Every structure is written in structure tokens, then in C-alpha cells.
Amino acid sequence: MNRETLSNIVKGIVIFAAAVCFGLAIAELPKTSFSPGFLAILAFATIVAPRTSLALPRSRFAISFSDAAVFLTFLLYGGPAAIVVAALESASNCFYLRKKGFYFGKWMIPTNVSINTVSIAVTYLVWLRVAPLIGEANTSTQYIVAAVGTIAGVQFLVSSVLVVILAWARKGSPPFQTWKQDCFASSMTQIVGAGLAGLALKIVNYDVVTIIIASVAIVIAYLSYRQSISEVNDAMLTAEAAERAKAEIERERRREAEKHAEQLTATLQKEELANEALRKSEKDLQHSALHDSLTNLPNRKHFHERLRQMIDAYKADPRKTFHVLFLDLRKFKNINDSLGHALGDKVLMIAAKRFVRMLNATDMVARIGGDEFAVILNDVNGVGKAQKIARRLLDNISHPFSLSGNNVSISVNIGIAPCDTEYNTPEEVLRDADIAMHYAKEWNSGVAVFTKELRERFLERIRYENDLRNAIARNELSMSYQPLIDIQDGTLLGFEALLRWNHSEIGNIPPNKFIPIAEESGLIIPITVWILEQTTTQLASWQKISPEYRDLIVSVNISGKHLSNDDLITDVQNALAISKIDPRSLKLEITESTAMEDAEHTIDMLNRLKLLGIQLSIDDFGTGYSSLSCLHRLPFDTLKIDRSFVYSVGENGENSEILQTIISLAKNLKKKVIAEGIETESQLHLLQNLGCDYGQGYLLARPQTREKAEQSLYERKSWLPEKVVEIEDSVEETVNIDESLPVF
Q1: pLDDT tens, 77-101?
Q2: Which residues lie across from 407 on neighbouring strands?
Q3: Which of 119, 603, 611, 663 sees the fewest Cβ atoms within 10 Å?
Q4: Share in percent of the chain as helix, strand, coil (round to 5)
């Protein structure tokens, strides 16, 4: 058992014993005790006494009137009354001292109160045995001295024993040493208290005039002594301050002399080392100007100087070939976020050492910023050899390693820029190597070689990104709407909103070109906000055309970047507030792969969206490899089958097993199913027989502009092909759902 636990146990016992003693004292306290005299003593002990303590000069102790009040209560009103007064005056004194700035530990106040309460209680028990030996109570000096001396002595002895036990339990202090150091010296307070109690008892037996005269005399003596002590303390403080000032002056003189001697010695040493220090400083300055402080690799400036020399040498002699590699650590931000920047710096140092070990002495590797490195391969003949070296760097850096108890695995994207006579500056070479690196990152190929076609694609991408930032303001974005059809009865469920970009100069840009750019740049979030407002407002207008359209829905695709942003909740709420549509009329589609990137966050976000009353759908189901343990926790309403599964079905229903399994799974989960990419009547017929609820595709309806979609609503057109409608009720089902197929 450790000291802290033992100390807490002992304190608990003392506090419990005090609580028992206090409770018994209250129970034993006669009603006759609540006289004006008792209440006056109680008020004095709890209010006046803590504020009239006299601190003894050059001492840790003070003369207090609290013990006198307790002893006087003991003699006048008995032991139970004294126990009550002792507990209350001790608590009052502790709180007064804490208010004045004295620090008390967590259990210090209850413990002090308990020690005082238990010591008076034990004193009372001893007094019950000793009182008959002293004689009947009277006002004689002999009786008062004997009684007060007995009470004070027993109280001091019991409180000393409790203090010694607590000190031993807390720190293991030797009992006698504790008593000698902390208890014996404080006996003065019990002696003074006993004397004052005896004097007070003697005075109260005289007439009122004598009591008043004695009280005035005591107050005058108290005030005079208090003033004398204050003057003595002030004089001592003044003398001590003068002594300290004198000693400080002497110490200052010695320090000045020592400082002068040290300065003289230091000056001589500095003169001897000045030239050497200057040379070292210049060398260090030159090194720091050309090298990275973390990895000690050449920095961007040094790399540019070396690369400029290589460009000039190649222009002079084409046989002096070189290749530049641009290396970027993959997802290095995740390492910083998860392990901290200190360990992130160590990862960079390890990567730098591995790069250096894999290269020749004539090559150069530099850190050009953040998690980006660059390499000059000298005298490498052909791009093929440069690619082999890059692959070797990629494989070597990918070997996992342990760092501060963490298993770390890193990889890189590498772009290669071969030497070319068109290069005139290092910036041009690094630019093209960077373009190749971004291509390797985009296609997850690890290594890519720069070509002029890549530069054109990169510049096109940059232009698209810049123009996309202002596409909304220039009114270049618009919405198309593809009908969602109930394939069992041909009614219109609603529309899927599809974004279109009609560039003012280039014309229509395919979504597969600009959507990934919007995703990567973060522009997808403000664009989706615009889509939500546009589509919900449009839907509100369409729902007013006819009562049969009041339940139309609009389905909006949500990107993974927007799903990870808590602002999505606010964006949806704002769209609903602006359009005033029923929340059930809005459906958000999230792809399965996006939902599985961070399943726990997705589940939380979807549950919060579900509370708004909107509908949710999993898009491209079957392509994200989600596990059923996560799937059943996603609060979606609709499951949309990816078009690849519909497209793969043959004319006679072959290769339909996956469709059967997905639809069966959805039915078991009590979810609706939408099949996308329906292009043939055989596909539609198969889906109808399998029990699929809804569908979309070119066979049913192509994406339409806002105007054409609205026109179709007014025309109340039939959405199922006429041939399918005619034979739907007459043709028997040719495909049965195999309930025994495994669910993935």
C-alpha cells in the first residue's frame, strides 16, 4: 500500500470519528445550553477569535483566543457543548485563513476540524473520569487551575498523537521528531488558551462592574500588546531590509570585480579565436545558404545552380545528357496529422538518406520544399534507364520502417523530365518534371515521363480550373434532368439532376473532364450548393403544375469532399428553406466507394442528414466493395445498381446473377432499387421480372434540359416503351430469382 492510500485511509478514519463525536455531542447537548452566554461564546469563537490572533515575532506560531473559548465552554457548559464549539471554531478559523491566502490541501480543512473535534471529545471522556478526583466544581483558584490544566493537557496530548499519526502515514516521518518539531513548539497556544479560560472563568464570578472593568483592561492590554508586536515586527523588518541591502551591495561589488576579471579573460580569448570563428562562420553561412537545415541536402537554390550548369553543358555538348526527377511523398500530410510534425520531420530525414544511398556520387538529390525532392541523374543514356532508376527509388522508399513504436510506410510519385535543347532555365525543367509527377499521382502509376502532350493536358486542366471558378457568375453552368421511372407501372418518380458546363469559348465540356477538376480543387462544394438551390427551386415549380406531381423528387449527387464537410447539413437546410419543398422530395446520392472511405464518419453524417427528413441513395452499388457490416448501418432509402451490371446482361438473361443478388439483398433490407443504364428492352424486361422498382437510361428517357423536362410534364407522356407496356401482363416470367445465391 502506498503512502497516499494509507494517508487517505487514516484521514478517513479521523474524519469519520469526528463526525460520530459531533453527532453524539449534538444529541447530548441539553436545551439549557442554548443560553445567551453560550451563544456569545460561540459567536466569539467563530467570528471574533480568528480575527484577533497575535503572531509572535520571529515565530511560526500565534496566540489565539479560540482555545480559550473552547476551554471556557467546557468549564461552563460541559463537554458536549465544548465539542460543538471546538468543531465550529476550527472550521471558521480554517476558512478565515484560506480567505486570507493561506493554502489548504484537498482534505486539510476537514482533517484539521476532525483533529480538534476528536481531541476535545477524548478530553471530555477523560474529564468524566478525572473530575471526581479534583473535587466538586467551584470558583477557587485551586480548582480552576487543576481543571483547566487537566483539560488543556489532555487536549494537547490527544491532538499531538493524531498529528504524529497523520504525518507518519503521509510521509513516514519519525513520530518523536514530528512531535518535537511540530507539536511541542505549538503547546504555547494551549497554555495561553488555558490561562485565558481560567482568567475569564474567574472574572465572570464577580459583579458586572468588575467584569466590565476587567474586559476593558484586557482589551486595552490586547491592543497595546498588538501595537507593540506590530512595532517590533516593523523594526525587525526594517533592520532585516537594511542588512539585506548592505549584503546586496557587498555581493554586487564582488560580482562587479569577478565580472571585470571574466570580461578581461574573455576578451583575450576572443582575440585569439576571432579569426578562426570568422572563417567557420563564413563557411557555415555558405553551407546554410545552399543546404536544407532538416535533411542537410542541397536546397532549391543550390539545385538550380547545379541544374543551370547542366543545361549550359548540354547545350555546348549534347553528349552530356541528364534527367531530372521530381519526387513527391504520397499523403505525407496524413503522417503529420497522425504522428505529429516532429515524427514527420524524421520521416523526411529517413527518406532523404534512402534517396542518397540509391544514387551515384555524380548525381544530386535536393529537398526543394515541404515533402518535395528533386534529383539530377548525370550521364544517364535514355529515358528507359532513367525510368529504371526511378522505379528502384520507388521500391526502396516503400520499404516500411519503425519510428518511435509506429510502423511507417511511405511512397512517392515521380515525374521525369529528360534533357532537351528547348530548356533555357532550371525552372522550365522542374516545371515539366512537376507536370509528369502530377500525371503519375493522378493515374496512380508511381512514375511518369514528361511529354509535350502532358504539358498540353496540364495547361488545359489549369485553364479549366481557373474558368470553372467563374462559371457560375458567367452563367455557364446549367442543369439537365434525367427522368427516374417506376418500371412496373411507368409512372414518373422524379429526376436526377445532372450538371452541364457550356464554356463561353470552348463550348460544351464533358462532365468527366471538369467534375474531377472540381473535386480535386474543392470547387465541387460551392458548385453543389448552387445545384441544390437550383434543383430544389425548380422542383418546387414543377410540383405546382398538377396535384399528381406533388410527390415528384429530385436526386442530387454529393461528392466525397462535400460529405466530409459539416457545412453540407447547413447547405441542405438552406436549399430546403429557399425552395420550401417537402424534405422528402430531395434525395442525395452518394457513391458506394465514397461512403466506404470513412465509414464511421459517413454513417454519422448520413444519420444527421436523415434527421432533416430527406431521402438518401447509394449510387454505383456493387463497385465499392462495401462490407455488409457497414452496409446495414447506412440509413439509405434507395440502392442504385451500377450500369455495368445492367450492361453485362445478355439478350436472354445470361450474366444476370449479380443483378439477382443485388435486388434480393435490397429487398431483404427493405430498400427500393433503381437500375441505371437501361438501354434495351430485354434489360428492362429482365429488371421488371426481378422486381426492380425504378430505372433510368436511354431506353426510357435521355437527360433533358429544364424546358424539355417541363414540357414532358405538361404532356403527361408515357415513359415505358409501348411494346413493353403491351406485353408486360401477357408474358410469363422467364427469369427466377435464385434465393440461394450468396450475398456479398
Answers
A1: 777 877 787 778 777 777 777 777 6
A2: 402
A3: 611
A4: 60, 15, 25
**Residue 37: CB partners within 8 Å, gap ≥ 6?**
76
282-288 average pLDDT score: 75
CA pseudo-torsion sign 631, 635, 640, 642: negative
Bridge partners (DSSP) listed for residue 509: 501
C-alpha to C-alpha distances, 291 to 49, 347, 368, nearest whole angstrom: 74, 18, 10
Query: Which residues, other chains included, contact 660 with Cβ-Cβ below 8 Å and sequence gap of 6+?
Result: 690, 735, 737, 738, 741
- Domain spans, the chain: 3-205, 210-286, 300-450, 477-495+525-727
Cβ 67 vs Cβ 189: under 8 Å: yes
* Sequence-ordered alpha helix ranges (H) in 470-521: 511-521
CATH of segment(s) 300-450: 3.30.70.270
Burial class (CB in 10 A: 0-12, 13-18, 19+), 246: exposed
- Give the three-class secondary structure for 424: coil
CA distance 331 to 412: 9
Q: Give bridge partners of residue 516 from the DSSP assignment.
A: none
Query: pLDDT band at residue 208, thresholds of 50, 70 and 90?
Result: very low
More confident residue, 394 or 57: 394
* CA–CA gap between residue 694 and residue 486 (Å, rounded): 4
Architecture of the domain spanning 477-495+525-727: Alpha-Beta Barrel (3.20)
The model carries a pTM of 0.55
Task: Tell which CATH architecture fits domain 3-205.
Answer: Orthogonal Bundle (1.10)
C-alpha cell at 381: 543514356
For the stretch 626-629, contacts whose Cβ atoms lie closer than 8 Å and that sit 24 or more positions apart, written own/partner, are: 626/592, 626/595, 626/596, 628/743
Closest CA to 592 of 629, 555, 554, 634: 634
Whether 145 shows a pLDDT value over 90: the answer reads: no
How far apart, in whole angstroms, are the C-alpha atoms of residue 113 and residue 89? 9
Q: Which of 417, 332, 436 is nearest to 377 (CA)?
A: 417
**CA distances, 244 to each of 59, 249, 251, 252, 350 (Å):** 20, 9, 10, 12, 58
The angle at the Cα of 79, spanning 76 to 85, to the nearest 5 degrees, equals 80
Q: 52 or 416: whose pLDDT is higher?
A: 416
Phi, psi torsion values for 124, nearest 5 degrees: -65, -40
Cα torsion through 284, 287, 293, 297, rounded to 10? -150
- Please report, as a single letter, which amino acid is at residue 722: E
Handedness of CA 122, 123, 126, 132 (dihedral sign): negative
Q: What is the CA radius of gyration of the chain?
A: 46
Cell, residue 688 = 421488371
